[in-house]
Specification:
single chain; 5-stranded antiparallel sheet; binds adenosine monophosphate
């Protein structure tokens, strides 16, 4: 099913991209829990994480791990948290969230960032990948 993430993959709407290869894309969440909150998605649209085949699942986890390691270097934090939800956008995505406090994993905790701040943050994270 095509979602807003399909439009991002196809370049129909903008996103603050952090990393990309033939099969996966990482970009900043537009309504971040914390500065640097990044989404990692497969380019082939699948709704639920555990409906991915074994190889696609493992490859998404490997891609997310690479992004998380760069994210931890780029954005000072205690650790990078990971969550998979998908209730809002039914296209598999791994949330990577730089954490300093448990509240940042609640999805009620949001930070305001301008488009310029998001663009700068995306370039900064990308420089660590
Ligand atoms: P969920 O499906 O519940 O895991 O949440 C979807 C996430 O996608 C939320 O954190 C949204 O802020 C984020 N999101 C929705 N639309 C966009 C977009 N156009 N660009 C970046 N992030 C988005």
């Amino acid at each position: 099913m095509a979602t807003i993430f399909t439009k991002i993959i196809q370049g129909e709407i903008p996103a603050h991209k952090v990393a990309e290869n033939d099969n996966f894309l990482a970009f900043l969440d537009i309504n971040p829990n914390a500065k640097g909150h990044t989404l990692c998605i497969p380019k082939v649209a699948t709704d639920k994480l555990f409906d991915l085949d074994e190889a696609a699942y493992q490859d998404l986890m490997a891609f997310s791990r690479t992004v998380a390691i760069g994210l931890k270097e780029a954005v000072p934090c205690k650790r990078v948290g990971m969550a998979v939800i998908g209730l809002e956008v039914p296209h598999v995505h791994v949330h990577l969230i730089p954490l300093n406090d448990m509240s940042e994993m609640t999805f009620n905790h949001k930070v305001n960032m301008t488009q310029e701040e998001l663009a700068f943050t995306a370039r900064h994270i990308a420089s660590y990948l």
